[in-house]
Specification:
3 helices; 111 residues; four-stranded antiparallel β-sheet; two-stranded antiparallel sheet; 6 strands; Alpha-Beta Plaits; alpha+beta
């Protein structure tokens, strides 16, 4: 089976709203994630985690930066087309402007 990484993205404004969630809203969101995870447990290699602050490293050096990547999951399946539908209706998409990008983890020849 092939592996894929799902990147959860959302605008900064949506993340700011999420920080204001009540404990009840946070629990409801987490319950929805766990329901999704249970439904697709055979495809999930690593449920992943939320991601924090970002550093950009390039030839000019290291700097602080911001992006919309909020978390990740690693899943497995036969193809990108076969795995993408498990994210349709995903709880992350309840946030205004949220999206999910799924990328195939390409094998390294000889490994």
């Amino acid at each position: 089976m092939k592996k894929f990484i799902a990147l959860y993205l959302a605008p900064i404004s949506a993340l700011d709203q999420m920080k204001k969630a009540t404990p009840e809203q946070m629990k409801a969101g987490m319950d929805a994630w766990m329901k999704w995870a249970k439904k697709y447990e055979k495809s999930i290699v690593d449920l992943g985690a939320p991601l924090g602050k970002t550093k950009r490293i390039n030839a000019a050096g290291i700097s602080d930066t911001k992006n919309g990547i909020t978390g990740y999951s690693i899943v497995q399946g036969d193809s990108l087309d076969s795995i993408a539908p498990i994210f349709d209706g995903h709880p992350h998409l309840q946030m205004q402007g949220a999206l999910i990008e799924v990328l195939e983890c390409m094998p390294i020849p000889g490994m």
